[in-house]
Amino acid sequence: MAKKVAFLQGNEAAAQGALYAGCTFFGGYPITPSTEVAEVMSVELPKIGGKFIQMEDEIGAMASVIGASLTGAKVLTATSGPGLSLKQELIGYACIAETPCVIVNVMRGGPSTGMPTGPSQSDVMCAKWGTHGDHPAICLTPASVQELFEETVRAFNLAEKYRTPVMVMPDEIVAHMRERIVFPEPGELEVINRTAPSVTPAEYKPYDTSFGDVPPLAAFGTDYRFHVTGLNKGQDGFPTTKAAWVQAEEERQVRKVEANVDDIVQFEEYELADAEVAIVAYGSTSRSARFAVNEARKQGIKAGLFRIKTFWPFPEKQIAALAGKVKAFITPEMNLGMCTGEVKRCAEGKAAVHGIFRVDGEPINPGQILEKIKEVK
Amino acid sequence: MSFDYDKYIRPGKLPHIWCPGCGHGIVMKGLIRAIDTLGLQKNNTAIVSGIGCASRLPGYMDFCTLHTAHGRAAAFATGVKMAKPEMNVILVGGDGDGTAIGGNHFIHACRRNIDMTYIIMNNNIYGMTGGQFSPCTPTGAKASTTVYGNPDPAFDVAKLAIGAGATFVARGTAYHATQIDKLIAEAIQHKGFSVVEILDDCPTTYGRRNKFKSVIEMMNRLKDIAVPVKAAEKMTAEQLEGKILTGVLYKEERPNYTDEYAKVIERAKK
Questions:
Q1: Are A227 and B267 inside 8 Å of each other by CB?
Q2: Could you tell me which residue ranges the Thiamine pyrophosphate enzyme TPP-binding domain spans (chain B) (predicted)?
Q3: Which of A315, B95, B114, B202 could pair with B136 in a Cys bridge, judged by C-beta atoms 3.0 to 4.6 Å apart?
Q4: B98 located within any domain
Q5: What is the pLDDT of residues A220-277, one digit of tens each?
Q6: Are residues A285 and A242 in the same domain?
Q7: Range of the domain at A352
Q8: Do B72 and A60 touch (CB under 8 A)?
Q9: How far is A108 from A117, CA to CA, in rounded Å?
Q10: Would you say residue B63 lies in a domain?
Q11: What ipTM describes this predicted complex?
Q12: Is residue B249 assigned to a domain?
């Protein structure tokens, strides 16, 4: 049987990806340019007995998804820059309480209200450093409508597998453009569900590390009763200030992501085998970069593209290895050098890093990148 | 035979953090008696709180307990209730947590009339941080941030809840201990968003700054200012000056949020 094909907007694809992954709860607040995610979820969730709620503000939306997640539901919220700033308080809560949830954040210009309808990639640092304290961060930066669907599914898988919030961050171009999408059949993409506790309710502890770095999470309203707090906690979930426990728990929370980068980090290498100039790009900017690479190759310039799909954890190993091979990196991005700084950090001076930065609400076009390739080759 | 509170307390979690003379323990005992009266199941009952002294209450209770972020209890609880409407959801917290940083979540939970019960322990102060004035600190009172007297007018929590759309609003005091469980039980039984404000005391950070010589004096004040709503009907405005009404202040029947959303699901499935 032929697969279902559609002409879909990026935000609509994110919502469809969430439904494919088994999302049954959405809590949100209207904000441009992510609102279509909420609109689709408000239509589709009740059809399957799921729940949609429009909360009174962004913080409330984040709170509602964490509450719902603790009852065992797969949960989603969607927002954009100013909303992401507000949600940071409870993204930190989800990190320390180790509550799975997915946040679609469509990147628009900032800071503050910025340019609500213009594209940007300036939230990528906020995804890792936005909430206070040490915590794990997973952030995916898809580059097409199809990929936004698939990466939203993967975001749910990572959230459930690692008991942590996961961000899907399309820039406004990817979120608002319309493209052909081929819907995967049920079962075609992997869907990971939360690990249920294997011990009796009496034995259960919500942060029991004898089960490894990601202890099973029970659900409220079942036979399992437990306590959840935003305070540093012991394995039983109750607050503690015992130095050794706090240190161990903080380290474990970060380690459960950092020790699994090979499972989490995805990227695409294009024409890199003999490349002398490597472009490192993500989101819609990577599409311009691919075009520029093709043009450069036609002109006999050995250019290639390293496309970041997983922004956090940053593909450190891969960039470091590339730095030993290429003469120069070019890092086009719709901000003033956020990914560029990371590439410089990983390159450790072994290759020059040339940024192309736009924060004027206009996309970076292939010509601009091609020009830079010729300049640095 | 004396009431067995231990049945509902998590083993090993006492003593609590509250200071001697604090009324929060009286409220917790009232809540336990109400839960016992209604026969609520531990596995099917979530107790959700924000941040502050009062918000430490869930940790002592042997239920599904969620100690959230400052002011956010109502929003977290809304997620729990929406996802599992069959659960009993009880919110607890203080006046600063609920009416300042949590004010927006509070009024919208009232507006939605979502079937949860919110117990606000109003001790007129931010106790945990050392006695800063809250939206419920009386005008003129002393706090660590109003040493010259509080210039702010105070919220009337019950009026705020009624105005925002709560369909059951009651008020009690920590002095009237035996009334607390009755008010809470009636609130939990009410279908819709119910608010129970318990006037409470903080001898440590409020009493000592405001010339209360003892906890007993603070408790006696609660006794003196409280007037049951029925008794107030027979009193003149002059007699009611400086008094606070207690009992069930407001009650109406209105469709509750999760029942209404169940209808949304029915319509969407057609």
A1: no
A2: 51-198
A3: B95
A4: yes
A5: 999 999 999 999 999 999 999 999 999 999 999 999 999 999 999 999 999 999 999 9
A6: no
A7: 267-376
A8: yes
A9: 7
A10: yes
A11: 0.97
A12: yes
